[in-house]
Each structure stands twice: as structure tokens, then as C-alpha cells.
Amino acid sequence: MPDPDTSDASGASDVPGVPGVDAARREALRHRWLPALLSARDGACDPPPSPYADNLIERWSEPQRKYHTLDHLTAVLDRVEVLEDHAADPDLVRLAAWFHDAVYLPERSTNEERSARLAERALREAGVAQEKVAEVVRLVLLTVTHDPADDDPNGQVLCDADLAILASAPDAYAAYAAAVRAEYGFVPDEAFRAGRAAVLRQLLDLPRLFRTPYGQREWEGRARENLRAELTGLTKD
User: Fold this and answer.
1) Looking at the chain, which runs of residues are DSSP E strands?
2) Alpha-carbon gap, residue 110 to 196, rounded angstroms
3) CA 126, CA 138: separation in Å to the nearest integer?
4) What is the C-alpha to C-alpha distance for residues 87 and 32, in angstroms, rounded to an integer?
5) With 70 as the cut, is the pLDDT of residue 63 above it?
6) Which among 90, 141, 150, 206 counts the fewest CB atoms within 10 Å?
7) Cα distance between residue 204 and residue 77, in whole Å
8) How far is CA 97 from CA 16, 79, 161, 187, 232, in A?
9) For the segment 8-24, what is each residue's pLDDT rounded down to a tens digit?
10) pLDDT attached to residue 12
11) In whole numbers, what is the pLDDT of the chain averaged over residues?
């Protein structure tokens, strides 16, 4: 497989569509990408924005993905919509959502760093000013720890949007956990259970999973219930 963060950032190879993604969904996602990019580059129309969207949609559609899919991207974008009043620049947060797992191979531990490099290269090529590119890169890297500062509203919105799946209804949470396991299908059961349990304990040890007022009010309690239930299932004899 070619290195996924060194291929063309724009996808400017005149691809008419994205394999495996129906035209209606592709257009809906393009329409979500367009205003965010135009805002970030102060309305400039060139270079054309659609090839960048198509490249990202293709990345999020790769076959190794079971959880980090277009469904996850769409869910994060939806949550940014819910939380946008808490952000300093919602459109930069949206761009960071598009890029935050754009490079994703489950066996690697450097996906966020590679995704950040892709964001830097693609957004500079797309005509976004350097200070805005730097903010998107910073936000993408923040998803390594999901630990934004108290004075970081953009980071709080992105991290809360990314973690909102933890507050799903029990059946949706079970589907999420199963998809995560499927992504790590190459890991033996015992090793996966130990590693996943460590991740869950790390999350539960945080004083707050969510940093925005909305996230704390609407998602914190249910997320902790889900995490504890999953941990119990992983560690029971």
C-alpha cells in the first residue's frame, strides 16, 4: 500500500467520483466542506475546492477503516454544528474535523501526526493563510490526548465532538465498540482486551471527559456509564 500521507493532497487526478461512495452522499459532504474552506481563505474561489473534498472522502472510505469511516466524520461534523457557539472559529474546527483522522492505519501510532502533516500541506496548497493552517494543524494534533486547555474553545469543541460517541445510547455504543475491535482485528483477543481496558481506565481517570458546557451537561454522565460497562465486560473472568 502506498504511504497514505504522501499522495496528492488535492486528489487533482480528475477523478469523477469517489469509489464506493454514492453521488448524493459525496455531494452532501462536498457542500459541508465548501463553506468551511471558503471561510478559511476569506472567500477566495481558487483553487477549486471540490478536489480536496474528494481526496478526503476517498481517504475516509479506505477499506481498513471500520470505525474511523465517513460515518464517524459525519458524526463529528454534526457535533461541531451542535457546539459551534462555543468555538472561537467554528470553520477552522470543521476543517480540523475533516483532517483529524484523514490518515489512518490501525497498526500505526502516528496517525494524528501524519494527518496533521497532510492538513498543513493540503490547506497551504488550497490557499489558506499560514496562521489558520497552523491552527488546524494544532487542533488535529490535540486529538492525540483530547486534553484541551481551559482557554482553548476551538480545541474543546473538536475534542468534545470527537468523543461524543462515548455518550451514545447503549446499542449504538455497542456498535462503536465492535467497530473499534474490528479495526484491530489483527490484534489477539487477550492483547486487545488489555490495551482497550487501559484506554478506558485512562478516560475514566480524567476529571472531565467533555470540556464545553453542553458536553458536560448532556454527555458526561452517559459516557462514563458506557465506559464503565465496557470496562466491566473486558475485565470480567
Assistant:
1) none
2) 18
3) 18
4) 17
5) yes
6) 150
7) 25
8) 24, 10, 9, 27, 31
9) 555 433 334 556 788 99
10) 38
11) 92
Q: b vs e for 131-162, b when ≥16 Cβ sit within 10 Å of the residue's Cβ? A: ebbebbbbbbbbbeebebeeebbbbbbbbbbb
Sign of CA dihedral 231, 115, 47, 93: positive
Cell output for 145? 490526548
Q: What is the CA radius of gyration of the chain?
A: 18
Helix (H, G, I), strand (E, B) or coil at 182: helix
| CA distance to 63, 159, 203, per residue, from 197 (Å) | 26, 21, 10
Expressed in angstroms, the distance from the first to the final Cα of the chain is: 39
User: CA angle 119-146-161, nearest 5°?
Assistant: 75
Angstrom distances, CA of residue 16 to CA of 8, 11, 32, 64: 16, 11, 19, 23
* pTM beyond 0.85: yes
- Report yes or no: 118 and 103 within 8 Å, Cβ to Cβ: yes
The length of the chain is 237
